[in-house]
Specification:
heterodimer; A: mainly alpha; ABC transporter involved in vitamin B12 uptake, BtuC; two-stranded antiparallel ribbon; about 70% helix; B: alpha+beta; 3 domains; five-stranded antiparallel beta sheet; 21 helices; about 65% helix; elongated
């Protein structure tokens, strides 16, 4: 029932989900089922790259939920993404076991290197997949809840909120760079071997992760659609457009904001948890404020407050980045910078807005 | 001023001093010209005992050439010619060495490296050479040489050193040299056999902050047996320690204010664009960077005038960054007024473009900006506290910029218009203020101040394409903490954050201190969402 309501009138979303479904079935088939010599073969590299893009798209959906529908420009969503990634990285670190360089059955290599004798308390339990998966969602969720509770209760809004979310991710980046934090410092977590017993280098695992990412994107998208078409979603839009008025009517603005902000952070955590096994590394650079602000432009390019636009924007910008940095590495920053300027000036509603306008004409 | 007629500064007192110091058998009256020559010749001997005596002989000879020989020995340039065991002064020349007789100064031509060998020196000799040079130089007519010689003598507790020092102290009339001589004498007197003398020395050293005075007192305390002297030393040490602690606090405060002044410089331009105009300028850091690069380019254009180019760079950077700012305002920002989040994104894009522009046109690497000579060195308040000139000047400079900006905003017609537009745009327009022009000029002013900040920062940190990013978050923190739209808030906010950061660093470490400051601001904003000094107004938000 909810599903029908969520997708009613959302042509863009229906098309996007249909394409996603086809891609999620066809790409792994072309990768695993077609011999490498065939022109139809899709290389494992491409599969992993696409899987990475899909996790970015999920992250963009999470940002669009708070920016497009709640009017909160978070410049710290990269932090939630990275925290989810670290949770998954910690699980895979524990899975290495005695196959590490130092062969310690419990301690990850970097702890042996730092001469630590036992596992810190916050690493306990990460040898269990379900626990790590739960943490990948809970840790960003709790952080967003506490942060949001404090910020929204005090009515920190607009650019102030953007700036302190940026300070949040910057502070986390500095913290994770410290070796004493116990997350591998500068180098982060890497050299993963396997996930749930599947070899991470294997073609089939890569394809499996790709399908999982596509599935997570589809589910995340549907969940967001469900929220924005619900009563809660309509209150959110009201807050975006006239916050004081909504408050005066009697809605608890801060609660709505905290709820949606926390959900969005959890979604970002899931995206991060799927991202790390595909790229094989997580380091404090993921917390850099630049990453968080870059992902806002994905949403802006696609068109904010459409959700499917966020997916399109994330895929397009990242595809552009991959091709650009391959051909003219110099020009990428010009292109990205130009994109920021041009989209805000001439395409305030993004590509989705462009399509809607075409249809209207 | 004690003038000594001897050009090498070897007076009678020096002669006595040197040989008293080295504690040798007096050579008597015959130790003149001949004594010096034979003493130098005996440096070629293998026995350290003989060499030590020869050294004393050279020091006591009173010969004008003694100092040159001792210095050569200290620098390892006094060597022995293998073929005839002659003591020579060597100087690297081409592939080999040029030789000169140590006694006669006769030129002995050029030789290979193998033809000469070093005079082996042990630690006792090294100390003796150093003290002998110091004792000889102590009589020099040049006060700077005397000062460094006196410094060299601090810590020699030899009983004979006391006589040299007190003899010199009686004649000395340069206050700085007297100060150091008193210190050296005090340290030397700590080793006196007489307990009274030691007590007097302790009393004299009690107000000295020189670490060597403290070390000498601590050493005395460890070895002293007289309970009265022990108690006095204890008291003196405690007094010195508490004064050192205060000096350390003063130094931390200075570092904090220095960091604060950098933050204020970086943030104050932002306080105008963000505070007065409500525009989020993420390219502010890059405007600072452009100011720093302007400094660099001006230095490149006039290589011989490093000392003066900064004075040209300040207005140039103001103009260049200001023009960039006006261009940004005219082409992008003016279409986005009232949409602060969009402005944020657009200016972030501009910051990326500017960074890449510098990378492609100048270099992706950091460039070397030179410091003028008047910026180096430090102002010594006392031996435990000295303030480096570059930080001091930048602190003063940031205050000047602040005052200038305040004057512009409060005392000029432009300032009046800026404030009017900031308070009520529609009303200001109705009164005939050309708000578009005011916007462009305000933005240009904020950008120009960023450029001026860049000139100052180029003297403290690396100048590279990424330098702007390092400041943007800090600058926003300062503005938000201080209260938007309030220049005083920016000043006080920046200084507070700088000082807090530096006071936390000793126990938390630099990175953790920064994290704590960020967390503090995040929490502070919850409590006072409008900063330290909020702008008051009656308009409801939203």
């Amino acid at each position: 029932m909810g599903l029908v309501r969520a997708l009613r009138g959302d042509t863009g979303g229906q098309v996007m989900l249909a394409v996603l479904l086809v891609v999620a079935v066809v790409v792994p088939m072309l990768n695993l089922g077609v011999p490498e010599s065939s022109p139809w073969h899709v290389s494992t590299y491409t599969v992993t790259l696409l899987g990475k893009y899909l996790t970015y798209a999920l992250l963009a959906v999470a940002v669009d939920l708070v920016w497009g529908y709640l009017g909160i420009l978070s410049l710290g969503h990269g932090a939630f993404f990275a925290l989810g990634g670290y949770a998954m990285g910690m699980y895979m670190m524990r899975q290495i076991g005695d196959r590490g360089v130092y062969g310690d059955p419990v301690l990850p290599d970097f702890m042996v290197f730092l001469n630590w004798k036992e596992l810190p308390w916050f690493w306990q339990g990460f040898d269990l997949f379900w626990f790590a998966a739960l943490m990948a969602i809970l840790v960003p969720g709790v952080l967003a809840f506490v942060f949001g509770y404090l910020a929204f209760r005090s009515r920190v809004t607009g650019v102030y909120l953007s700036i302190i979310t940026q300070a949040l991710t910057f502070a986390l980046m500095l913290a994770f760079f410290r070796n004493e934090m116990g997350f591998g410092g500068n180098n982060g977590l890497t050299d993963f071997k396997d996930l749930l017993g599947f070899d991470l280098q294997a073609q089939s695992t890569r394809a499996g992760l790709f399908v999982a990412s596509a599935l997570a994107l589809a589910l995340g998208y549907l969940a967001c659609r469900y929220i924005v078409t619900s009563r809660l979603g309509r209150v959110a839009v009201a807050i975006r457009d006239a916050e004081s008025r909504t408050r005066f009517i009697g809605y608890r603005v801060d609660r709505v904001k905290v709820a949606i902000f926390t959900f969005s952070a959890m979604l970002a955590g899931v995206a991060g948890a799927l991202y790390v096994p595909q790229v094989g590394i997580i380091n404090p650079g993921e917390f850099s404020p630049l990453n968080s602000i870059e992902l806002v432009i994905w949403v802006a390019v696609g068109g904010r407050a459409t959700l499917y636009g966020a997916v399109v924007g994330a895929l397009l910008v990242n595809y552009g980045k991959s091709s650009f940095t391959g051909i003219f590495p110099e020009a990428w920053l010009f292109a990205l910078g130009g994109l920021f300027v041009l989209v805000t000036l001439f395409l305030p509603r993004g590509i989705a807005g462009l399509l809607a306008w075409r249809r209207a004409v | 001023m004690t003038q000594d007629p001897s050009p090498t500064g070897l007076g009678w007192a020096g002669l006595i001093a040197a040989f008293l110091l080295l504690g040798i058998q007096p050579w008597g009256a015959r130790a003149e010209e001949q004594g010096f020559e034979s003493a130098v010749a005996r440096l070629a001997d293998r026995s350290f005992q003989v060499k030590q005596e020869a050294l004393s002989g050279i020091a006591a000879s009173g010969d004008p050439r003694a100092l040159a020989v001792l210095i050569a020995l200290q620098d390892g340039d006094l060597q022995i010619r293998a073929e005839d065991q002659r003591v020579v002064i060597v100087r690297p020349s081409g592939a080999g060495y040029a030789l000169k007789d140590a006694v006669t100064g006769e030129d002995l031509g050029q030789v290979e490296r193998g033809a000469i060998k070093k005079i082996p020196v042990n630690n006792a000799m090294r100390t003796a050479v150093r003290v002998a040079i110091a004792a000889l130089t102590l009589e020099s007519p040049d006060p700077v040489a005397r000062l460094s010689a006196a410094r060299e003598m601090i810590g020699t507790s030899d009983p004979l050193a006391r006589q040299i020092l007190s003899a010199r102290l009686e004649k000395e009339d340069m206050p700085e040299v007297r100060e150091v001589l008193t210190l050296a004498l005090g340290v030397a007197n700590l080793g006196a056999a007489d307990a009274e003398a030691r007590l007097a020395a302790i009393a004299g050293l009690g107000h000295h902050l020189d670490p060597r005075a403290r070390n000498a007192l601590a050493a005395l305390l460890a070895s002293e047996s007289d309970p009265e002297v022990q108690a006095a030393a204890q008291r003196a040490l405690a007094g010195i320690d508490s004064r050192l602690a205060w000096n350390a606090r003063a130094e931390t405060l200075f570092f904090g204010l220095s960091l604060g002044s950098v933050l204020v410089l970086a943030a104050i331009g932002l306080a105008i664009t963000f505070g007065v105009m409500g525009v989020i300028n993420m390219a502010h850091g890059e405007l600072i960077m452009i100011g720093a690069y302007t400094t660099y380019l001006i230095q490149q254009a006039m290589p011989g005038f490093v000392d003066y180019s900064l004075f040209l760079a300040i207005p140039a950077a103001f103009i260049v960054s200001g023009l960039f700012g006006i261009a940004i305002e005219r082409t992008v920002i003016r279409f986005l007024y009232g949409r602060p989040l969009e402005t944020l994104l657009a200016t972030f894009g501009i910051s990326l473009i500017l960074q890449q522009l510098v990378r492609t046109t100048i270099s992706a690497q950091n460039v070397a900006v030179q410091n003028p000579s008047w910026m180096s060195g430090s102002l010594a308040i006392n031996p435990a506290l000295s303030l480096t000139y570059n930080r001091l000047y930048i602190l003063i400079f940031s205050l000047l910029v602040f005052v200038a900006l305040l004057t512009i905003l409060k005392r000029t017609a432009l300032g009046l218009q800026v404030r009017a537009v900031a308070q009520n745009r529609a009303m200001a327009r109705a009164m005939g203020v050309r708000s578009e022009r005011v916007d462009a000029l305000t933005f240009g002013l904020g950008a120009g101040i960023a450029g001026v900040a860049g000139v100052a920062l180029s003297q403290l940190t690396n100048v590279g394409p990424n330098m702007g990013q390092a400041y943007i978050i800090d600058s926003f923190m300062v503005v938000v903490f201080g209260g938007v739209g309030n220049l005083w808030g920016t000043l006080i906010g920046g200084m507070t954050l700088g000082v807090a950061n530096k006071f936390m660093e000793p126990w938390a470490g630099a990175v953790l201190a920064k994290i704590l400051v960020l967390v503090f601001i995040i929490l502070f904003i919850q409590k006072r969402p409008r900063g330290l000094f909020p702008q008051r107004g009656r308009a409801a938000e939203g």
